[in-house]
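TEACHING EXERCISE
Course module: macromolecular assemblies
Task: Read the component lines below, then compare them to the predicted structure of the full complex.
Student: A.B.
Group: 4
Components provided:
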Amino acid sequence: MAKNFTSRKENYSQWYNELVVKADMAENSAVRGCMVIKPYGYAIWEKMQATLDKMFKDTGHSNAYFPLFIPKSFFSREASHVEGFAKECAVVTHYRLKNDPDGNGIIVDEDAKLEEELIVRPTSETIIWDTYKNWIQSYRDLPILVNQWANVVRWEMRTRIFLRTAEFLWQEGHTAHATEQEAIDETIQMMNVYAEFAENFLAMPVLKGVKSPNERFAGAIETYCIEGLMQDGKALQAGTSHFLGQNFAKAFDVQYLNKENKLTYVWSTSWGVSTRLMGALVMTHSDDNGLVLPPKLAPIQVAIIPIYKKEEQLEAISEKLAPVIAALKEKGISVKYDDRDTYKPGWKFNEYEFKGVPVRLAMGPRDMENGTVEVARRDTLTKEILPLEGIIEHIEKLLEDIQNNLFQKALDFRTENIRKADSWDEFKDILENKKGFILAHWDGTPETEQKIKEESKATIRLIPVDGEMEEGKCIYSGKPSKQRVVFALSY
RNA sequence: CGGGGUAUAGCGUAGUCCGGUUAGCGCGCCUGCUUUGGGAGCAGGAGGUCGCAGGUUCGAAUCCUGCUACCCCGACCA
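Instructor-supplied answer key:
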């Protein structure tokens, strides 16, 4: 059991905050609302990036980079877009500092006021569409399938490390298409890419669907999303993919000549996931002993700890393990052989356990005598002594098992926490006592959605896309409804 | 932006009400010896402009005034 570590039951959000810091993933910085992602946490993010990047490339996308700064005037071009982001924009107004003539250190030079103020990007649609305008003249220029890895800034009132920070890292895909259907297909394809990534790599089961108008991205016609369920029963939006229609094409006058020589507005999409996925990862699998990482995203998949008293013993163990380490690396498994003599074995056990390393091997004098090794798995916290012979195959299989087990556990948890509610009382009772996802009928109006949010704090997380149709009555207004939607308390 | 709170060593804190030795303790850090199969033990040691700026006083971490930063609760949000 970890020392000085809050349990989930005691205080879930404190557990989360402590875990992120103590597992060496990230910490709060000197800048309000901004985090420092530490090497261990960043290594996890790099694995996510590498995997997603490959998935994007495999679906025909290329990376590019657009400016951090966006001229203020660009923002006002798309009305609902500016409305959605205006309240949380950082603005650059000056470009020079000077020494204070009164000797109070350095101050902003008022003479260096920018002609036009610059917005630090909260998202890049506007600068990108202003640029695409010059790239697109003919149907031969389409589609444009571009992604960028970048940082963005949203000046949030209240921040939480990884889940909501003033600055965060993400990728944003921005595509342009000749036809509406092609853009819709792209939007859905990317939602599916995100879902596949979430389930196969994060080992986090997700629901897929579309957002209600209230929750839709500012400037989108339709927002598709994936939603995960955290261990405290709250939902987390883990990725969004937007069908933007011709909104930005019209706002930035992006037209192309089609085969019939007619000027036509292009159709567009945008889609993104962020460092918020790091928070999703923590809250899906981790336990009261610390972080639990799915093998596919673990920077260290196998930690190996020698147990010895004398230098000769260490040498003998190292020699015995050298071929094992080489063979594991040969298989593409990331291994850390921790032969530091500045920490004791017990300390190392706790260290790797807290940092979520999926598999731990230990070899000491007894194993040397018996030709065995101790194998411990993080997900179940179980240990077994196994013969060294055949250990590579065993570990390979074990990593797969752990990956699958984590997904299955998370899936079982979610299955247990999806409930139907057929009345307002039942709905409120579930929210108060159990939380989780609630399937309920809704009359389809923003007014009702707003009322439900005000009275219960729950929001519509998504409207299932291929969900079964079922006639029913809205739990709040009693008006007719054709389909259940998914409600939850959310991050 | 409203309401509440906090600021003392890298981290966590005692002391503040009621001013008075060298600001104490735990973790961590450094040195040495003994240890090493689940966060070792003992001994010694380093580390503080008590958030900042004024004021009261013989004397301020402690009292007064102003400022700043951060945390929690709300409204806003990936």
